[in-house]
Amino acid sequence: MILIVLSSLIAILETEAAIRDSAPQFFMGAQILIALLFTLEYGVRVYAAGEDPRFRGLSGRVRYMFTWWALVDLLAIVPFYVTGGAQNAFLIRLLRFLRLVRLLRLGALSSAWVFLADAVHARRFELALSAAAAGFLLIFSSACLYLFEARHQPEAFGSIPRALWWSVATLTTVGYGDVTPITPLGKLFASVTALAGIGLIAMPTGILAAAFSDALRRQADCTRETETPNTAGD
Amino acid sequence: MILIVLSSLIAILETEAAIRDSAPQFFMGAQILIALLFTLEYGVRVYAAGEDPRFRGLSGRVRYMFTWWALVDLLAIVPFYVTGGAQNAFLIRLLRFLRLVRLLRLGALSSAWVFLADAVHARRFELALSAAAAGFLLIFSSACLYLFEARHQPEAFGSIPRALWWSVATLTTVGYGDVTPITPLGKLFASVTALAGIGLIAMPTGILAAAFSDALRRQADCTRETETPNTAGD
Amino acid sequence: MILIVLSSLIAILETEAAIRDSAPQFFMGAQILIALLFTLEYGVRVYAAGEDPRFRGLSGRVRYMFTWWALVDLLAIVPFYVTGGAQNAFLIRLLRFLRLVRLLRLGALSSAWVFLADAVHARRFELALSAAAAGFLLIFSSACLYLFEARHQPEAFGSIPRALWWSVATLTTVGYGDVTPITPLGKLFASVTALAGIGLIAMPTGILAAAFSDALRRQADCTRETETPNTAGD
Amino acid sequence: MILIVLSSLIAILETEAAIRDSAPQFFMGAQILIALLFTLEYGVRVYAAGEDPRFRGLSGRVRYMFTWWALVDLLAIVPFYVTGGAQNAFLIRLLRFLRLVRLLRLGALSSAWVFLADAVHARRFELALSAAAAGFLLIFSSACLYLFEARHQPEAFGSIPRALWWSVATLTTVGYGDVTPITPLGKLFASVTALAGIGLIAMPTGILAAAFSDALRRQADCTRETETPNTAGD
């Protein structure tokens, strides 16, 4: 009933095909095979959905076809038949990757998933706050650089959205170097921005570290509490 | 009485206008509308301040006009009428963003704000120390590079403040690449600086992580302590 | 019996030779000496293996020669005699570095090694998940950039593997700047990628911090538990 | 007796002079004044050392002059009189910054200093291990890039020390971009190196976070333990 393992294997194969798409002649055949396999798998999946009490009967199967995952599956197949395997449908086929997410929930990774999701969820307001601070810094620093550099580098800092490109590269400490301030005041503010970028990275890292640490401690406390009565009973 | 939600919405709209200011003809109208709305809101706010017992009566309202937030509001409006909406007043209007900070204190984010501020405040001396270490590293590494590179790249390393620009870009691991050492000794010291930059990032991150972790544990301890008597009473 | 300290010293010397290999005439002699010393050491090691009850006798020594570490030792010597000290064997000789790993397990670093390995092992599923998320982000962002930039920069973004080079540089916040997006949509997605790169760094850092923190707490709890009975006995 | 506050203020002033050393005529006077002030302060300090029982008498003062800090003070003054205030003595005068370290130990920062130093010292073996791993990665990745790129970019990757410059810039995620691999295999290994660079940053950050967290918990436990008897006594 569950073809996930097979389909994910094919999905991985398919992206490997995408990785080597500089020689498209060879991969045309593989693409047709993959499309056929996915169509077959989709058919089997719709048929097998009838086994599930929620989707029993013909109308149940139709209802299944409108669940989120089934639509993703359909979306990944249809473009091939419509466009004949053109490259533009490429991103949609990447949606199949989302099914790997489902796969990650299986097996030993499941508890890790729950653990991480819970920890992040518990501190979501703190993370939202540091995201808001990051957004404020982004807009403020690009506004400053726009004021100081627009005259000297109209191409790179001629408007705030253009300055935002520099701002993102600096605050995330990526620092491409395709756009850099050249006026002394611009450099001064850029330095302040770069130093603030450390805070931008340190803040969510610290919050996540504390969240994971807290989740682990609560786990340990639960274990200890269930153990304590036994010890007391001895 | 509280127009914050409305004003912040307008503030967001206004920065979106700023984001698309490459076509200023269209945004002139929006700017006038926003200025009128903010003036109206400022009037309502001053009038409504009379409801607050601290600012009752005419003299109370005048006193309200000299509170920090009221001055920020005034500063954001006045430039428009003085300059007729020129671009130079742009940064001052960005001050309105500060009002979003007030908004962040409302609702569910309020406790997150208090939590983060408390944790950072508790470890402010440790953070100040690592900031001092960062400042020392910045000056020391730019002095080294100035000594080794000034002869070969007078444009980039001809003085210590010029070398500081490189120093900030390296220690924060931004690394624009517009200025790089070319002598072997300069590269050696630059490598040491880059490696020290890891410490510069790791130190505040570790301190913040520990601070958040500690704040969470104290929270948990408080909950447990208030729960313990109940358990003991059973 | 254990020549590790000596061999590691020679290994360090040897890489210093490698470091200064721009003047190969001088280092030829050192290379021959090192090769002879390592051959001698290998002979002594094989002979001394007989002292170990597992490798007693001639057949035991032959068995020892096929253990993993003995093969590494052999691999590091053979190329010199086959190629006469050519540069191509250089990487294989770097395998000797692996023996330093063994050395790190000795002395005071041993418990640190066990501590770090245990902590990482305990959270291996969480780390695997964030590695999977990183891989997904890498492929997704390079696919996006491929779609938006392939037309304008066929050299840099002409295929997904080419875009992956940019993608790795951005997500790890290295940001060489040799390849940067030039279209507005490409820059937008690049900004999102750069911001996601912060999460990519914050996630494993947070997990590791929590793992080390948890390992330290368990250590402290063990100490306290073994101390508690003594206190109760008083 | 303690002139530290005054001397550190002068030291800060002096580096500000160094910051503006592009106009040396004006700063010549300031330099002479500072040198005289420091000479005076050194004399007062040596005289005042006699108040300390360890350095009583003339021979005690001579002994004081050979303590580490007094030598640093002397080193910072002598070059001015020998070279007549030349720029080469500049780095030695920066040694005065070290005296700021002493100042940082005073006041409220003192406990923060002890706290951070203790936490780092407790995990020194783990930090040494991750430094060793970083060193191994540095040498290994530069060796790989040397093998793949030496033929195509002899200027940048012609020897291992040259490749090390690239290696440091990549592993620390600085990424100047002045030197980048151009061969596919070189890019593949560079990507692996960049991804390993995340681990290189995450490891010490995690260790430091756990160390600070642990130090805070031990502090809290001490407080609780000293409080517990009081509670039990009630």
Automatic annotation (TrEMBL), chains A, B, C, D:
The keyword Ion transport applies. Gene3D superfamilies: 1.10.287.70. It is found in: Membrane. It is a multi-pass membrane protein. The chain crosses the membrane at residues 27-44, 64-82, 127-148, 188-212. InterPro entries: Ion_trans_dom, VG_K_chnl. It holds the Pfam family Ion_trans. Keywords: Ion channel, Ion transport, Membrane, Potassium, Potassium channel, Potassium transport, Transmembrane, Transmembrane helix, Transport. GO terms for biological process: monoatomic ion transmembrane transport. Residues 1-218 form the Ion transport domain. The keyword Ubl conjugation does not apply. PANTHER family: POTASSIUM VOLTAGE-GATED CHANNEL PROTEIN SHAB, VOLTAGE-GATED POTASSIUM CHANNEL. This is Potassium channel family protein. The lineage of its organism: Bacteria, Pseudomonadati, Pseudomonadota, Gammaproteobacteria, Chromatiales.
